[in-house]
Amino acid sequence: MSAAHGRRERPEPPEPLPAPTVDAHTHLDACGCVDAADVTAAMDRAAAVGVTRAVTIADDLAAARWAVQAAHWDDRVAAAVALHPTRTAALTEDDHAEIERLARDPRVVAVGETGLDYYWDHSPPQAQQESFRRHIDLAKRIGKPLMIHDRDAHDDVLRILAEEGAPADVIFHCFSGDAEMARRCADAGYLMSFAGPVTFRNARALQEAAAGVPEDLLLVETDAPFLTPHPHRGRAGEPYVLPWTVRGLAALRGVSAERIAESAGRNAERVFRLGELPTVVRSDAPGAEGARSA
After folding, report:
1. What is the predicted pLDDT for the residue at 6?
2. Nearest to 148 by CA among 182, 169, 172
3. Is this structure's pTM higher than 0.90?
4. How far is the C-alpha of 105 from the C-alpha of 115, rounded, in Å?
5. How far apart are CA 280 and CA 108, in angstroms?
6. For labelling alongside 36, which of 44, 63, 121, 264 has CA 20 to 30 A away?
7. Mean pLDDT, 10 residues at a time, over the chain (294 residues)?
8. Backbone phi, then psi, for 51, in 5-degree steps?
9. CB 74 within 8 A of CB 105
10. In this predicted structure, what is the pLDDT of residue 281?
11. Burial class (CB in 10 A: 0-12, 13-18, 19+), 290
12. Distances in whole angstroms, Cα of residue 102 to Cα of each of 61, 87, 272, 276
């Protein structure tokens, strides 16, 4: 993902949430963040509307190196690292070894995003499935949650999780299934994270799924800069846009935005063990500058 990626400028900030919450999945590098000052500024914008923490996600090795750096620049940021299914066509043993090294960093809170993507024809299904199995094994060996990318591959994702034995905590990032898929995930104890598409007017099946997810399995995310929620669909996102998704979910479920913010934040704190993260030097401290690794 490029930092610019040609998207329109970001929308004005939403009304602040009535309770703090956590952005469970964002891509701060793709949002245009390059160094510690950028990360601090993005998280300051998020905090101003009640989004007090964020997990920044990697999809390739360069992004993984950068995400770990970012998690060491600002206490409000944690990282997740993996090799995205669309990047699995030519992986080497060295690639997997470096992901494991990075995943063991104390400020990395999940292995992800990994999984299967049958929408884009970038990597053969067999290569994706082999990489997915290796990421499942890694998550179990290091005792961290598994964050799943699942696009047009529900049955195979669930099958492989069952065959390999799922880690203790599994998160379906940007959940895209229907109510039946949500029920299957809930029966297995998997968390489901909802992004901007749940607010889209043509997302009836997804909205029906979101309405029935058990509260203790619910997370919220931006997947920024992508999938910015209604009414700013198509514009560039950042963690600060999350309140629109929170309010959309609240309306679907017939509860207050405060309740969604609190429960999703509590679930994120629990599954990512955010309270156990080591404290880092703030990005405005001397020597905290940096840039994305090549």
Report:
1. 41
2. 172
3. yes
4. 21
5. 13
6. 264
7. 53 97 98 97 98 95 97 98 89 93 98 93 89 97 98 96 98 97 98 98 96 98 97 96 98 98 98 95 45 35
8. -95, 95
9. no
10. 61
11. middle
12. 9, 17, 16, 18
| Tokens encoding 217 | 């399995």
CA distance 166 to 191: 12
Structural domains in the chain plus CATH codes: 21-273 (3.20.20.140)
The single-letter code of the amino acid at 27 is H
pLDDT of residue 121: 79
Can you tell me the distance from the alpha carbon of 278 to that of 274, in angstroms, rounded to the nearest whole number? 9
Measured from the Cβ of residue 86, the count of other Cβ atoms closer than 10 Å reads: 18
Helix, strand, or coil (residue 141) = helix
Token digits of residue 195: 């992004």
- The full length of the chain comes to 294
Q: What is the rounded distance in angstroms from the CA atom of residue 239 to the CA atom of residue 236?
A: 11
Kindly report the number of other CB atoms within 10 A of residue 95's CB atom.
17
Can you state the percent helix, strand and coil of the chain, rounding each to 5? Answer: 45, 15, 40
- For 198, the token pair is 């749940």
Contacts of 150 by beta carbon, 8 Å cutoff, 6+ apart:
115, 116, 117, 157, 172, 176, 177
